[in-house]
Write the structure tokens for this entry.
Amino acid sequence: MDVQDEDQAGRRSRFEFPHRARGPLRIILSRLTLAFGFIVLGTVVVFLGRSGYRDSTGHPLGLLTSFYYSAVTLTTIGYGDVVPASDTARIVNTLVITPLRLGFLLVLVGTTISALTERTRAEWREQTWRNKVRQHTVMVGYGTKGRAAVATLRTRGTLPREIVVVDVSAAAVGEANRHGLVGIVGDGTRSDVLERAELGKAGHVLIATASDDTAVLAALTARRMNATAVITASVARAENVVLLREGGADNVITSSETAGHLLGVASLSPAVGTVLEELLSAGLGLEVAERSPKPEEVGQAPRQISEPVLAVVRDGRPLRYSDPRIGAVRADDRLVIAREAPGSHRRAADQDGKN
């Protein structure tokens, strides 16, 4: 990619906030309806006070003439063939018809005003978001793996405003917006795009790009911009795990090999495959979680704790539950446990009711 291509790619990156999309036809029809409503309101006002108006033909004002006067007065300055003659009619024109005329004109030029203010509004929203965001999660790539990762985060309690999606596809970012997420259309390997995602203030970076080489470059860029964030990446081929770890990734998931292992286990033992699927899928019944030990659990061995302990994280290093170095659980340890997913009983009951 030459310098010109890079500049064009940088300009193409843009913020996308969650919003409810309205089609252009719907917007035009709503504004035309509002404008016509102003004319109808003006017609009613003139007709109710018709005795104070003078028609150049000498005929008394009827509903049609009132409608005509309201239409030409709101859309132009009038033609003088129907004029307010009494003081009351002139006061009504000043206090009611004139504001209606101004409102009518504002509705007609509303599209232009909206176009002029849209950029300012978008910049204000972006700046407000930048000032507030801290320790958020940057999701680079919003394909099948990225969507599943975000779904798991949200199931575990992460709020939508704490997740930022970066993807080159406007359609993918649009889908993220529909789920309440902030999105950036752009290349997640470029530092200027990741700067817009405030990666320097992020607590976690998830990389789920379509190709391994893109994942490696994204991890290198992310680590250079943030030395403390936890970077987790997904790759298709196991030989690229070393490259990602050398590039700064803390955790690397090999999707192809992992899927193959699960297939093999499920074929040999379907029950084990079902349990593993529940552990790896959000909200299916079982989940693997990390938590601090409860006060009454401090000093106990992992086997004595009521919830199954899979590992103990001590000084940042995970130790398997059977590792003799664990000894007794400490207050500053972290326990990796298997437990029932929140709400799994209710979902199971609902499923049984459907069956």
